């Protein structure tokens, strides 16, 4: 598997196609009574063992996203705009949308109905866990009851809220847990009741967020009607400067195309810069495609992907790659070596500015966490800035590891160049708050007693993904979205700060 | 197509006056009928249409899969701007409410658009009210961006909104609106959020893809709702799928 790392980087010029976007965004074809329940893992007509991208035998050149959906819908080829019934490899839901999805499943399929496949459903409590809110606690109970009743194989439960560490099954933020537990695999279709399900596109799979009703349908049938999106291709070349992180790249892109620039579209990330990114950084890139309105994001699987998956899954998978002649709606090119650290100013993720342009913005707090910026590499990056400065933070700095695994890493992995110190030691020396229980935390506000929720109209630099009014709690709160480098640098000065001041 | 006076008098409390198109076409000439009068009071659709434990009944009542929409919405509008995200439609602190639970469905409705900033001086829902008096929401670009929470279209539908008219929608919000059948997510051809004011009296004629602002006297063309229309009319994807025979009718 590792030998097939030669993904074809399409360096061709803009292949602007005249794809119509006027067709109905939602339509249901005539009755299909005889759809096979079988999940097809390999394209049927393909006799050769070689990858479709290398055989040249495909009739119509397709993008990665088109190929994944073609395979999942058991069709030899697909074009953007087609509506197809797709076989789902994995369905994920969590405590905020799971109870509603289960409610719809029961209402529509009956109280005694069984889910389509108990091993393909992953249920991850992560949003409102460490709260005394009774309804939030009840929602986790609903998940547990359902998982017991249906014998769901992958349920990452938490029962003792007083100490997450005594709950070995508990993971934390679903998108990070999915990757860490081996549920993200190249070439597959992953649907989840969370808009940031697109994070898993980092593994070269089709992954997108759906609502409760669609999830209820998938629970019962294992299928969903999806429209094939056209693809926007983002080619990022050049050596990434050591003061940049993937967060800067995606903020650059969203700033370029706006919060609706990729609506209904797939975003494919290629180029030497992308190839150089580790899996967690690729996840950051794909995580925020929904902030541009994107349906999904994809990074072609390569040796980095295969290596990450080695000890995480034994499920066979088959990566696919965009054909050289594949048609892209448009192509954007970036020379990353010239990019500077960025922020998204309030109140929109496309309100892009250079971090140094905002150096006079006084801040009240810093938040490092979430599916976007609460991974091990994100805390490593923040620790690197604190270590380089040797100073203390000037504003309260909240750290919320995404998962239990990330929390363990924060407390155990040595930070390079620190003489063996862990992130947690460096954070303590810098005067940060103690790393909190792993969960979605205050990224989306949540119940009033959520740790680090903005209950006052403050200014926060955050490694999270959205900064619309009220996102982290208070409606008049101001959120500057930034990379972990920029967030840590800002914590050290009390102003929005370019990390080059410390790195 | 346009509602007739008989429709209004037959069901004066219903905002969504929808009936079988074949019937309507045989009885009325669509082009000759004008709205007989403007309702002085905002009209809220009955609870039952969306609290719906029984979407199937409604679906089976009109077996034609090809029915064109003969639906008219009439009421006062609430106007918002661009990029109204799901946190403004229903802030995350209310997501503990489970939409498939009827009591919590109602409660979700009472919080619809509560996340709008203070710059919106007129409240969408008055304090201590469960419903809005605005049955039509008019927005700008990228309405419903952000989270995939189905609570967003559900809260609007539960509050008594029949349709949103925006320049464009975020993908998941549009899809959730259709699959739940909670609201019609209609697209305007021009930027009407700058020409309408909160409180204006408007009518939407779905078959004509038209919005009429009676307060200003202006008419606007809407983009056709297309294949999504019958799905919403049926009450969502499950109801539609049963109606069209894609999935069997529920037993019992």
Automatic annotation (TrEMBL), chain A:
Residues 80-353, 357-494 form the Aconitase/3-isopropylmalate dehydratase large subunit alpha/beta/alpha domain. The keyword Kinase does not apply. InterPro entries: Acnase/IPM_dHydase_lsu_aba_1/3, Acoase/IPM_deHydtase_lsu_aba, Aconitase_4Fe-4S_dom, Homoacnase/IPMdehydase_lsu, IPM_dehydratase_rel_enz, IPMI_cat. It comes from the Eukaryota. It holds the Pfam family Aconitase. Keywords: 4Fe-4S, Iron, Iron-sulfur, Lyase, Metal-binding. Gene3D superfamilies: Aconitase, domain 3. CDD domains: IPMI (cd01583). This is Aconitase/3-isopropylmalate dehydratase large subunit alpha/beta/alpha domain-containing protein. It comes from Hevea brasiliensis. The lineage of its organism: Eukaryota, Viridiplantae, Streptophyta, Embryophyta, Tracheophyta.
UniProtKB/TrEMBL annotation, chain B:
The keyword Lyase applies. It holds the Pfam family Aconitase_C. Residues 134-181 form the Aconitase A/isopropylmalate dehydratase small subunit swivel domain. Gene3D superfamilies: Aconitase, domain 4 (3.20.19.10). CDD domains: IPMI_Swivel (cd01577). Belongs to the LeuD family. LeuD type 2 subfamily. This is Aconitase A/isopropylmalate dehydratase small subunit swivel domain-containing protein. It comes from Hevea brasiliensis.
